[in-house]
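ok, trying the design again with the full structure, not the truncated one.
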């Protein structure tokens, strides 16, 4: 699912990196909170910013930044109906964003702007696919909280289309059973091949539904096992789309669980194809070279780093820090690099990525 990266967010992402870059992100709901309380909260953040600037930068730079920041605060719109605000200021850039997302208060002073929370702007649509299988036919549906519709394909969806692909003569019951197994095998391989096109078009969590025996057979031959979130066992041959939606509903009720399981499946599939980078050092290297298709990271994972001898290397910093090569959070920089290269970013709960060292990057592959 592609993130909703607005032109304003792109402007922040593409801003020239120039230290110090100040990012202030805070809850901001004038409809709910009195103006005096919000103004006081802003003043406290400006005071905190001044203290950190004075401790780390020359007075001339501090005076310039504080002048710009105070001017921005004076022009804040207290009539907005949004939920939060993001203020970005550097010696060469300034921007205020009013956001529709709930955030926690955060102040970051670094060489680049805080992008992580802006990724949460994505509108999370609960879309999924359901493949209904029986011994005789297959149907595939697209569902979300509002709709549940069948996807029509140009390829045969019944087992009978393959009757002529095998010899017709059957001498006894054993031959008949073998005949039926051959046809079923051809049919299921054909269904799996059709999934190639569907999954490339939709790239959504996949549920399979049908009798346990046929689903077990399908899972043995499919090349798309990594896309399957859940197998729903039962006889649903005569079920209407509305009935199927009701059957699937309990399985998609906990959408976070569905989404996170789907992401883990994608990571495992990429690992099998040797297209997965794990750990911040390898992820950084691939992101710098624009190879990131999908970044998956634990929500609160942060990593302070130092630039190495080349752009694609970083290492854990040692004190005293080199002010000009120190990176306060390399994870945020990776998020920005992946988004700028046309990739996507997803967050999961800790410790779901413990075996991946908290961060993993799926590289582009066909």
């Amino acid at each position: 699912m592609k993130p909703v990266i607005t032109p304003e967010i792109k402007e922040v992402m593409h801003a020239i990196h120039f230290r110090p870059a100040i990012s202030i992100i805070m809850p901001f709901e004038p409809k709910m909170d009195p103006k005096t309380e919000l103004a006081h909260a802003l003043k406290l953040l400006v005071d905190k910013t001044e203290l950190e600037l004075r401790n780390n930068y020359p007075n001339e730079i501090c005076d310039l930044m504080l002048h710009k920041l105070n001017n921005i605060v004076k022009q804040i719109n207290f009539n907005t109906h949004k939920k939060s605000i993001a203020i970005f200021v550097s010696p060469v850039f300034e921007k205020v964003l009013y956001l529709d997302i709930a955030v926690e208060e955060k102040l970051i002073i670094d060489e680049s702007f805080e992008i992580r929370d802006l990724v949460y702007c994505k509108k999370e649509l609960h879309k999924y696919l359901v493949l209904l299988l029986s011994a005789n036919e297959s149907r595939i549906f697209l569902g979300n909280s509002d709709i549940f519709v069948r996807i029509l394909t140009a390829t045969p969806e019944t087992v009978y289309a393959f009757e002529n692909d095998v010899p017709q003569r059957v001498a006894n019951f054993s031959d008949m059973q073998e005949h039926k197994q051959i046809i079923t095998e051809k049919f299921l391989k054909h269904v799996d091949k059709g999934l190639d096109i569907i999954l490339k078009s939709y790239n959504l969590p996949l549920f399979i539904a049908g009798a346990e025996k046929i689903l077990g057979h399908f899972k043995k031959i499919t090349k798309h096992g990594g896309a399957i979130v859940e197998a729903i066992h039962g006889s649903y041959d005569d079920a209407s789309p509305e009935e199927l939606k009701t059957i699937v509903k309990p399985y998609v009720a906990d959408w976070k669980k569905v989404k996170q399981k789907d992401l883990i499946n994608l990571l495992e599939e990429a690992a099998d194809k040797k297209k997965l980078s794990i750990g911040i050092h390898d992820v950084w290297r691939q992101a710098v070279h624009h190879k990131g298709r999908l970044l998956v990271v634990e929500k609160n994972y942060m990593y302070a780093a130092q630039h190495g001898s080349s752009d694609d290397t970083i290492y854990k910093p040692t004190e005293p820090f080199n002010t000009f090569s120190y990176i306060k959070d390399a994870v945020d920089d990776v998020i920005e690099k992946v988004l700028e290269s046309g990739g996507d970013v997803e967050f999961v709960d800790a410790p779901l990525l413990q075996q991946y060292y908290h961060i993993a990057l799926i590289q582009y592959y066909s």
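Keeping the full-length input from now on. The longest strand covers residues 21-27.
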